[in-house]
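Quick review question:
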């Protein structure tokens, strides 16, 4: 890639390598590219909408890789710069846990107390080693 850019710009490859070592210039150019592309930094407003999206998806989907692919698609479609994969995976784990709790609470709240007691009784191993549920 470096050689291709060097040829296109008519520059020596070493000059472009020098460019990458100057962090203030690199940061300034990255910001100019973000502004030109009207891209939103993840940390400047992209995290909240992504969390909401992942939560809603996690209420329907379980697999991490599927949620990761959907999250990346959401970021792309909303012109939000993608953070590191470990950041996305952390968000997915947190939102998936929140979605599980939400679903559990929703189901639990719809059950009568008698029915909950009957379900709990299935988990008690009385004089046997196995519970009635097992």
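Suggested answer, residue by residue:
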């Amino acid at each position: 890639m470096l050689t291709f850019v060097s040829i296109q710009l008519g520059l020596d490859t070493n000059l472009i390598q020098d460019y990458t070592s100057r962090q203030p210039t690199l940061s300034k150019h990255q910001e100019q590219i973000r502004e030109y592309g009207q891209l939103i930094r993840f940390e400047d407003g992209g995290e909240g909408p992504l969390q909401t999206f992942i939560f809603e998806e996690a209420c329907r989907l379980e697999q991490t890789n599927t949620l990761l692919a959907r999250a990346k698609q959401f970021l792309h479609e909303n012109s939000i710069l993608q953070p590191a994969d470990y950041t996305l995976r952390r968000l997915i784990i947190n939102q998936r846990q929140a979605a599980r709790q939400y679903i559990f609470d929703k189901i639990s709240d719809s059950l009568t107390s008698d029915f909950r007691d009957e379900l709990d009784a299935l988990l008690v191993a009385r004089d046997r080693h196995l519970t009635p549920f097992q």
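Why it works: The two ends are 60 Å apart (CA to CA). Residues 42-134 form one domain.
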